[in-house]
Amino acid sequence: MDFCHQHNLVDPGAVGAERRFGIRISLPPDDTLRNILGDDWERLHWYPTEDERDRAFEWMATRHGYYRNTDTPTQILEKILR
Question: Which of 13 and 36 is assigned the larger pLDDT?
């Protein structure tokens, strides 16, 4: 598989690595974005080490600068293991 952008979620050097540590992203039951994405929407991100997963989790849980002052993200983040 070709990777043409640095921002792709998969590091080409780690393509074959086993990824046991994950983060599940979902929406709360009352989130209006469910009207667009569907009630069963979720996104899974997998990492080869627990440390990488934990660093990514902290980054995802941070309120990023591109939100407006009145925006409050409602995503649910959950650490998972397979």
Answer: 36
